[in-house]
Design brief:
2 copies of one chain form a homodimer. Chain A is α+β, with helices and mostly antiparallel strands. Chain A has a domain of 111 residues: Jelly Rolls, CATH 2.60.120. The first copy, chain A, has 9 helices and 8 strands. Chain A has a 4-stranded antiparallel β-sheet. In chain A, strands 2-7-4-5 form a 4-stranded antiparallel β-sheet. Chain A is elongated and about 55 Å long. The first copy, chain A, starts with a helix and ends with a helix. The interface between A and B is large, with 36 and 36 residues. Chain A binds a DNA duplex through helix 9.
DNA sequence: CCTGCTTTTTATCATTTGTAAAAAAATGTC
DNA sequence: GACATTTTTTTACAAATGATAAAAAGCAGG
């Protein structure tokens, strides 16, 4: 997915402001399995997923809880690093080989203070992440495991083919065994 | 809680910008039980809780799921209204008599486009809500019901005295009966 | 201080979900 | 195509949670 499209989907920027941002963006490629964001470390870059799939998870004892799955166009960030310059809870790893756009947070922060359009772009960026996060949270509260799986199925049928069911189960808040049972019942 | 403090906790504004916002803010009082945000309706104001407690919930069949409890200083908004001018999932009602600051979203939006400091304030506002929402979401994923209750207990001991346990149970993702069992076991 | 109403706890039973281990299926590599 | 590895499903049993109903406790208004 093209960078211009990603930037503009968040907030329509004047050409000059968009070019200002793009001057600081570079492209990087990482292989499947690479951990791009490390929990408990401050991450100094923001990424946008050009292609591929990633997942965010939190370690909990000897297991991991997957709480976000991102695909092409999605921002890949350590929220707490981005917002507070503090270590975050989440690790993010790549479920496929991925190409990402990246920009140093330092550069972005500077642009926020220089250009009101970019400041409003940053506002819209946070707002759209906020909406998505709230939606995800409410969705996870609502309904039984079966309903949540059905919802996932209808909203992200593509992910079902590309993401191991163990991660999807964790995302839905159940065990892989439980998810397997649900899938068997529905069929 | 004073409006200046609430505004500045989000982002330190120059005096002039802060006065610009305050010119549009008024104070309102509502009684316990009043529903201030209605699900599936577009809400055209943003509120900040000067005093009291509120809860956000989503209707689900014949029951309600409480997914947020806000106390003094907290912003009270319909996310989807604020961000997208669209009806939201959540209703918010008052658990105590409350005093709130309020500003029309229309006025705030205009200020965002006029004043870069206010634009960045708006960015920080969304970002801080984002962090809190993510934290809440992850926290709800993590651990058993007992652990989640213990976490709630240590993070918001005051709310335990002021919020009916039924709402807290729903917030933790369990039934009131389950919560009661947990409380009995811990003692 | 009593009365009625709401909230919380307790008890019982049915159901769901988790754990652990093994079998089956799918995937990738040589 | 055969092997090793990973992923998914299945099974059996244990533990946790939900539903329902009833008792107990707490609280507000007169």
């Amino acid at each position: 997915m093209d960078l211009d499209i990603i930037l503009n989907q968040i907030y329509a920027l004047p050409r000059a402001s968009r070019e200002l941002i793009k001057a600081y963006v570079t492209e990087v490629v990482y292989p499947k399995g690479h951990i791009i964001i490390h929990a408990n470390k401050v991450e100094r870059h923001v990424y946008f997923l050009k292609s591929g799939i990633v997942r965010a998870y939190a370690d909990h004892g000897d297991s991991q809880i997957t709480f976000w799955i991102g695909s092409e166009g999605a921002p890949v960030i350590s929220m707490n690093s981005y917002v507070n310059n503090r270590p975050g809870y989440e690790s993010i790893d790549l479920l496929e080989n991925c190409t990402l756009y990246t920009i140093a947070m330092q550069d972005l922060q500077r642009l926020f203070l220089q250009d009101i359009h970019i400041a409003n772009w940053g506002r819209k960026f946070a707002e759209s992440e906020l909406i998505k996060t709230e939606e995800r949270m409410i969705s996870r509260h609502l309904g039984t495991a079966v309903e949540r799986y059905r919802r996932f199925l209808s909203q992200s049928p593509d992910l079902l083919q590309r993401v191991p069911l163990g991660y999807i189960a964790s995302y839905l808040g159940i065990t892989q065994v439980s998810l397997s049972r649900i899938r068997a019942e529905i069929r």
